[in-house]
Please model this.
Amino acid sequence: MRGSTDTTNIYDIIANLPRQFTAAFDSVSAKISPDTKKIIFCGMGGSALPANLLKTYLANANLDFNIPIKINRDYSFSEDVRTLPATPTCGFFCSYSGNTEETLAALGDAEMRGLTQIVILAHGGKLAEIAKEKGYALVQLPDTNQPRMAYGFIVGAMLKIFANSGLLNIDFNALNADIQKLTAENAALETRAMELAKSVQNKIPVIYASNAWKYLAMVWKINFNENAKTPSFWNCFPELNHNEMVGYTNPVGAFKVIILKDGADNERNKKRMDIFNSLLKEKLNCEVIDMADGSPFYKMISTLSLGLWTSYYLAILNNLDPAPVALVEEFKRLMM
Model:
């Protein structure tokens, strides 16, 4: 149910986000060299997180894809210039607006270092103009109102590019079937998210997952930050058991800890989650969310959808518009 404070209809964008994957599968024709041995993905904020999700999916699906993907969130291109001629490298430069200053600077740095294989992902702006001027491959991102709402298309586009290039053998029919299944279950996810949002209200949400799914926890955290405009944090098992949890000995705020638990997680990690929950359930209002059964792709997209809906309904409960990120825009203005 769309909230009255949702002035730009983020509701429909969230409901249709899974279909972005299908749109990318159907429309993206770009290719990179089949000899590519290294990929550097440059982006910031919502234009960088799709690379984390891409790596998460590739790792959990155990696909035969052995090209390392390095994520670069900075002004400079992180690749050592001396390795470029010897190691065929492809740089992906992603900015929804096309005007992200760090990504534009990284592109200029990469060009100076001699990188020639470049793919641009942008809705418009300077990046799109550069791609057209210099003949770089351009993936046009759809209008999603906010960069963080375009990750379905970006992840789908990357998978399709790898497949187009002969670097990845993937069953797109199976992925589309998972997307249809999620779309059919959207109402149930919404209902679950409404209840979860109520339990988060007036608390600081902290999201935990196993190392295998840690970037899902990161995206949930970002959703709470940007959609619900609330501080949120994330970490992963088993690392958090060696340091972070000690901080809860003397908590100085009201927390809501959400643990994303996959039935296929390492048995020792599952035991860690259970013990953590039993020790701190009352103090931290801790709740374990069992990830859906199914393929790694379905587990990922269904868990992401639940997180999006939860942050959306938390914004509505707090009488906030989930779309704008006014503080980010003001910060950018002051940087000019």
The longest strand covers residues 89-95. The chain has eleven helices and nine strands. Residues 10-174 form a domain with the Rossmann fold fold (CATH 3.40.50.10490).
